[in-house]
Amino acid sequence: MKTRGRVYVCLALACGLFLGGVTTVAKPAVIWYSEPVKPGEAVMVFGGPWKNVSGIELNGPSTQHVAPLRVTNECVTFLYPADWPLTAFDATITEKDSGSVTIKVNTPDAWWLQGDNGEQATPGGWLRAFGRCLGYKPQTSGGLLQALGLASGKDNAVTMQLRGKNQKYTLEASQYDEYSCGVTLPETIPSDTYEVYITNGLDSNPVLAGTITIVPKTSFWKENVFNIADYGAKPNDQIDDSRAIN
User: Fold this and answer.
1) Kind and range of the H or E run holding 102
2) Which residues, listed in sequence order, are joined to residue 220 by a DSSP beta bridge?
3) Contacts of 194 by beta carbon, 8 Å cutoff, 6+ apart
């Protein structure tokens, strides 16, 4: 009976809103969008509901207003300006009846971290991140882009920042591409749990990628060395030395 009561109350409220002429429109939600993307390529933004998209504003090297290439209830598609350099930028999609949604394109999107000790890492070991838009080669702005005011600014390094309780390390990536990046950890880094931030070479603002715990390095193999000759084995005598080895 209690459950039915709740249902009746909900129905009564719904009817009251309907009869009173009050309607609510859900703000669009973004589930996924295509990246990494390059100048001249299409960006597809999935989510919705997209009912009445009135415009898309891009904020990067400059501000541009672009019309969508295609709009469905589940997807909005627009074009990355071909005259822009390869860069990170914001795209704000405005829905006439329910507000706007902003996405960050070509910024780091880390899915998971892995250390040389699995879910942990050790001093002198390595740390890697996997995801999207994690590392780009330095982008050198040419004279034409600078003349047009479209230069993306000074080149940025691909880095990982490890922020602990009392210390911070900024490490330049030793290997990277759009889907992964990795660093070598200092031999002197203290044991601690660190927040890991990434800059990808396009956007100088560090983006949180997750956490990693640094633990002391341990040996997986014993360092004992045994000379089987001390146990009766005689090399090069064509005699079975299994007894000495065992």
Assistant:
1) strand 99-105
2) none
3) 162, 163, 164, 169, 211, 212, 213, 214
230 — phi, psi (to 5°)?
A: -70, -10
What is d(CA 172, CA 150) in angstroms, rounded to the nearest whole number?
27
Query: Residue 79 corresponds to which tokens in the numbers above?
Result: 């074009």
Instruction: Specify the pTM.
Output: 0.73
Q: Is 229 helix (H, G, I), strand (E, B) or coil?
A: helix
Q: What is the pLDDT of residue 47?
A: 95
CA distance 147 to 19: 60
What type of residue sits at position 68?
P
pLDDT tens column, 8-45: 334 444 444 444 445 556 789 999 999 999 999 999 99
Query: How crowded is residue 186: how many other Cβ atoms within 10 Å of its Cβ?
Result: 13
What's the burial of 242, exposed, middle or buried (CB within 10 Å: 0-12/13-18/19+)?
A: exposed
Q: Which residues, listed in sequence order, are joined to residue 70 by a DSSP beta bridge?
A: 77
The number of residues making up the chain comes to: 246
Token pair belonging to 45: 């933004």
Tell the residue number behind the tokens 């040996």, with chain if given: 219
**Nearest residue to 55 via CA among 40, 43, 39, 71:** 71
Nearest to 124 by CA among 218, 31, 34: 218
Q: What is the 3-state secondary structure (H, E, C) of 33-58?
A: ECCCCCCCCEEEEEEECCCCEEEEEE
Lowest mean pLDDT among 36-45, 68-77, 148-157, 167-176: 148-157
Residue 76: how many other CB atoms lie within 10 Å: 25
Query: Which is nearest to 199 in space by CA: 183, 188, 214?
Result: 183
